[in-house]
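Exercise: predict the fold of this chain.
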Amino acid sequence: MSYLFTSESVSEGHPDKTADQISDAILDAILAQDPYGRVACETLVTTGLVVLAGEITTTAQVDYEEIARQTIREIGYNRSELRFDAESCGVIITIHRQSPDIAQGVNKGQGLDPDLGAGDQGMMFGYACRETEEYMPMPIAYAHRILRELAHIRKHENTLMPYLRPDAKCQVTIEYTKENRPLRIHTIVLSTQHEEFAEDWRTMQKKIEEDVRTILLPRVLPLEMIDERTRLLVNPTGRFVLGGPHADTGLTGRKIIVDTYGGRAPHGGGAFSGKDPTKVDRSAAYMARYVAKNLVAAGIADEVLIQVAYAIGIAQPVSLYVNTFGTSRIGLSDTQIAERLLELFDFRPAAIIEHLKLQAPIYRPTAAYGHMGRKPEVISYSYTRCEVEQAPEGPRETLKKHTSTAETFPWERLDQVQRLREFFAVRETITN
């Protein structure tokens, strides 16, 4: 018997994702100046208001309010009629330093473990499969593709669908065979915020549905996955004019399933956005994805789930679990694979941070359309810092601009494939 599986994504203008992006924009601004900054930044957005809270310890000089406003501006909340916009919203800042008790366990040489310890206890998961070129489950991959393209049209080709506003949600249901192979797209649900461009809501809904069917979907979905039975539900309430933080309060960290695998794989519960990489909620989840993706690409299994768990303040993980769901192509049990992975990869937080180059301002792009299944890209970034020089006439302040580069989504690299193939003696070549 076939079965159905559904995943959802939300756009960058969704209230929770707006909050995530502000938190990660603040993190990036700090890491650009201070790679060792400790950041746990939470954001709340609602009608006319942004609240920034959390714990930050850093030497960076950061204008939190302006970062929040610029992020909101770039998302597209830039007009008063949206009832939440970058120019008029209030910004409340209530941020203090990281707890010294936590810092003691994380700082190298200060806690029970002489190494840099995990920033918290907990378990993190990584997953990969062969369903898409991204090595991601098809439902979440397609939902992300649809909303990324919808945002592209809104921002860069707005004559095609000129009524679009920033808030949107998409849900994709895939029908699978009993052998767990994707068969067809069963249902697409898309709700997108829009201008009130007609007096009758039925007229607006019909026009948006037609544009989604003829303009949006052909750009991002393979035609062979769509048939005459595929259901398309666009703005099923009929009207979606009010949206964003005015219609629904947003909080950092409420879309962790959107951020990962759309419910196809477990989630340890810890959110990502606004956290520096000493927080293993983030860095260890990225490492687990990195290892799982390279295992699948190397042909060791067609589907891999990895769980890694930590104790706060302790560097070495307390456990590593591997599940290949019976798809392993080598003569080893999942337990044996896990044991060998500990020989190949260093899961200590400091080693993860160093290997993946995580102490860089690469996090704002992760805060919408998923942290996994994205393409690495080298970016340039700059920041201006006020520096004080001592002169005979007294201190002199000068503004100095610094530039550098970093790679986004380094955990999506497939740079361990050959190493894994050699270590596990894989001879069969498999293409995704």
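Check your answer against the key: DSSP finds eleven helices and 13 strands in the chain.
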